[in-house]
Amino acid sequence: MYRTILVPLDTSERAERILPHVEALSVNETSKVLLLHVIEPSALTPSFAVSQPGAAQITPQGYVEEIEAMRREVKEYLSRIQVMLKSKGLDTEVAIEIGPAAERIVHVAEDRGADLIALASHGRTGLSRVFFGSVAAAVLNRSEAPLLLVRSRDAS
Beta strand 147-151 with 32-39: parallel, antiparallel or unpaired? Predict the structure, then answer.
């Protein structure tokens, strides 16, 4: 039923709680599972070059190095998930994007022709949702593709 399932992951165990659902949807199908991680510029902690005592500046080189370091870490993470899914017989691919998470998820879904976007919501409510927003809600409002959303909460 689904040819391409886009699975955005943020490297958290909570986000990975969508994976059993994706496995169940994919195992008897010929679906491709596209694992996606979005590096958000606001999440970057660029290396600083100190030009004067007490004054730190972000250097373009430091910024590029920080992005490349994050890209390497994310690639290793996604590769581990990919190997695990491939061992279960799923056809998988990985992608890394840079930009606002919801915007990039919707773009990749459109660009790759995803039939389904499957993701776990962090289940924020109240003020934390107001301040941090909801990637899942933004994707739901912007995407033409169907969305499989699993509410993910801490196991405590």
Answer: unpaired
